[in-house]
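Dear colleague,

Thank you for sharing your sequence with our group. We've completed the structure prediction you requested, and as agreed, I am returning the results in plain text so they can be pasted directly into your records. Please verify that the sequence below matches your submission; if there's any discrepancy, let me know and we will rerun it promptly.
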Amino acid sequence: MRRTFLATVAVVTLGASSLAQAANELTLGVIAGTTGAGADISWRFSDRWGVSARYTGGLSWSGDFDDDDIEYTGDIDLRAGALTLDYYPFSGGFFLTAGVMLPDMEANATGRPRDGMTYEFEGNTYTAAQVGEVRGTVTLADSVQPYAGVGYRKSHRNGFGFFGEFGVMATNIDVSLSTSNDYESVDAQFHDDLRAEERRIKDDIDKLPFYPVALIGLTYTF
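Please find the predicted structure tokens below.
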């Protein structure tokens, strides 16, 4: 019984000591970059190891682009969370990081024929009156994706510091096209041509299988 009590006291004492030390290695930051703006929190539990979590979002923009004889107008929304394990090889601010990201990156677009009258898919011509508008959703990345990068975080000293990180996240491209007149459910040939257009767009985007993640920010270590 006495040994059990002493062992329990030792574990509690060590745990309290570890928590006290960890409190001096907790870093909070405000960050912004290619996935939006948000917050970062890091717990450096030893000289060389730490864990981090962050969330960024609110990055969106609109634009126009042409695809053969179709003019698209669209907007892109980006947001992502991340959970990573950080390794500080020199016990300073430089670190290597790996983990997972939880992205929600999607583009929505509306297409109309450039001449205002006809579309052409796979060599077949369809009128604007038949098809209406072409509506598309392009998913760049969602669900859970692997992530790796390098960075600098001043978590080895108390006070304000600079944060910077660059990495790459895997993407999982998906393209979905439909029409405002639901013409794909009426014309079997058009249905096949529209699915072929989806695959062509996906193949074009899939040439970049990674999304670059670049972030900078200001941190404070307690």
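Summary note from our side: The radius of gyration is 25 Å.

Kind regards,
the structure core
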